[in-house]
Design goal:
two-stranded antiparallel ribbon; alpha/beta; 10 helices
Length: 265
């Protein structure tokens, strides 16, 4: 059995622990996560915060756009927890998260492509380049330019969402540091999880990253071999199926349960 890495989606949240907070990250590490995924947004006063939604409505009850508020305005009240009550936690900054997690795990910064240089500066200043993964989607032109400006040191994870995007990987320079490729699979026979492509990813010394997340009953990133299937009693047809089809990295909302499953195979 090859080594499978567990990515905890926005940390491990539930009950009164809110996503994208230091508490969620500590819970994720306790539950066996190897990688913590976090979402980065920028406030009106230029502070980088950890916040998934473009609107603060769900997590703070505020209208409008998250980027239209200052950090102080967003921190004026606690975050709303997953059961709709006020929690004991407040909006977390990227700086706070980097300081808390330095040297402890791999970090995946998501949703920060519009201000990637700003997001990367605190990573570089802390000497955390080898600890942080940054994703990007096609076209990769901006990514290539940014990577070159940083001497191809950043660890870049390209995202391939469909068969027609596979060829775009060839445009990435050989000197780029690409430890993994993330794919979105919508059906069992999608090319992105087909033998030919998966073998090419592994032959290049890269890992295959698949999300086992379930966002709704209308959309899948893993051909429905997802967290729900796994934690409702059939992990062989969920996480197990993804591993059989080449996954080396699984992103999940259930890190402890995935870790327990991996210990059985």
């Amino acid at each position: 059995m090859r080594d499978i890495q567990i990515v905890s989606h926005r940390g491990r949240f539930g009950g009164s622990i809110v996503e994208n907070t230091l508490a969620a990250f500590e819970a994720a590490l306790y539950c066996g996560a190897d990688i913590i995924e976090m979402d980065v947004r920028r406030t009106r006063d230029g502070v980088l915060i950890l916040f998934h939604d473009p609107s603060p409505q769900r997590l703070l009850g505020l209208t409008g756009k998250t980027e239209d508020y200052t950090l102080a305005e967003l921190r004026a009240q606690p975050l709303i927890n997953p059961i709709g009550e006020k929690s004991a936690f407040y909006v977390t900054t990227l700086d706070e998260a980097l300081d808390a997690l330095k040297g402890r795990c791999i970090i995946n910064l998501d949703q920060c492509w519009r201000f990637i240089h700003e997001a990367y500066v605190p990573v570089r200043d802390r000497g955390m380049e080898e600890q942080v993964l940054i994703k990007g989607r096609v076209p990769y032109d901006e990514a290539i330019s940014w990577l070159g400006e940083n001497d191809f040191i950043p660890r870049f994870v390209p995202v391939v969402t469909c068969e027609k995007e596979i060829a775009e990987l060839a445009k990435l320079p050989e000197k780029a540091c690409i430890p993994a490729v993330e794919v979105f699979a919508h059906e069992d026979h999608d090319a992105v999880i087909g033998t030919e492509f998966v073998d090419s990813v592994h032959a290049a010394g890269r890992k295959l990253w698949i999300n086992a997340l379930t966002f709704s009953d209308q959309f899948t990133l893993c051909a429905w071999h997802d967290d729900n299937t796994s934690v409702m009693g059939n992990p062989q047809n969920g996480w197990g199926w993804l591993i059989e089809h080449g996954a080396d990295i699984l992103q999940t909302d259930w890190p402890r349960e995935l870790a327990d499953y991996l210990n059985t195979i």
